[in-house]
């Protein structure tokens, strides 16, 4: 296991980058704690696979260093870093049995035969392939082969880190849930440092202790699922996390009041006057419909009943506002206003969250 330090790290695929826009991975400084499970979360092309490949040694960064337990491994090949990596699509030895595929990393390092047998049996049970151990990999389905890849990545107990690059893409939905649970169980059992790349927020939030949200080559927030939900450090985090995502509305902020299209909104805390593009962000869970004439004037466009709650889609001038209402909530035609819980309103300037006066950001929730 290893603490992973990213020191002044950045990467460009261009030979002579001239500006920040030329970098696929913007400058990053952070310590990833030994033994924690991290998820790199973001849309396609945001830089998460680039970062993972730098950590694994498949890619050499344009600038900066990467350290494992304070040892500089920037120029070391993948084999010298003592990691296990599982890729998006299955990589297996078709001519080998499932048993031999799982045993290969251990045999390659001269492990004791009895230990190999016990460990392979344990991993096979974990991935649900005890009955296929003596089958050749060639005839198996794509999702079965990917389970072998996952098992082979997990079979070694002595690795510095386990790296997963969208490993459940070819796995059927029911098995995805089971394998995420097993990966979490493995982490609790052995305490490996794990880094899991995904564009799926459900995978990230259910797997990780800390989620690293990336946008346009930059890490915009590192935090627990609760921190990402309650205090998104960037409007992209608010938009990307949650279903539906955070409502973001242009506003003028003065002290503890926001002015939105002429309507006053209580912010519940005081703010200095932010510069640049100013917006407020409110989760649909903290918005409520009203018919008493207070709040922002809206026009309900449709109501989606998703079983456990209702999603109200409404228009406010040129903006869409989403409201989550209770499963049994009655939504009348006279409900033409929406109000927000002041304690759950976030203020943003140029897309970055502004702290209320007299408070400080939690280190875990800060952008790196």
UniProtKB/TrEMBL annotation:
<dbReference type="InterPro" id="IPR003593">
    <property type="entry name" value="AAA+_ATPase"/>
</dbReference>
<dbReference type="InterPro" id="IPR003439">
    <property type="entry name" value="ABC_transporter-like_ATP-bd"/>
</dbReference>
<dbReference type="InterPro" id="IPR008995">
    <property type="entry name" value="Mo/tungstate-bd_C_term_dom"/>
</dbReference>
<dbReference type="InterPro" id="IPR047641">
    <property type="entry name" value="ABC_transpr_MalK/UgpC-like"/>
</dbReference>
<keyword id="KW-0067">ATP-binding</keyword>
<comment type="similarity">
    <text>Belongs to the ABC transporter superfamily.</text>
</comment>
<dbReference type="GO" id="GO:0005524">
    <property type="term" value="F:ATP binding"/>
</dbReference>
<keyword id="KW-0547">Nucleotide-binding</keyword>
<dbReference type="InterPro" id="IPR027417">
    <property type="entry name" value="P-loop_NTPase"/>
</dbReference>
<dbReference type="InterPro" id="IPR015853">
    <property type="entry name" value="ABC_transpr_FbpC"/>
</dbReference>
<keyword id="KW-0472">Membrane</keyword>
<dbReference type="Pfam" id="PF00005">
    <property type="entry name" value="ABC_tran"/>
</dbReference>
<keyword id="KW-0813">Transport</keyword>
<feature type="domain" description="ABC transporter">
    <location>
        <begin position="4"/>
        <end position="241"/>
    </location>
</feature>
<dbReference type="InterPro" id="IPR012340">
    <property type="entry name" value="NA-bd_OB-fold"/>
</dbReference>
<keyword id="KW-1003">Cell membrane</keyword>
<protein>
    <submittedName>
        <fullName>ABC transporter ATP-binding protein</fullName>
    </submittedName>
</protein>
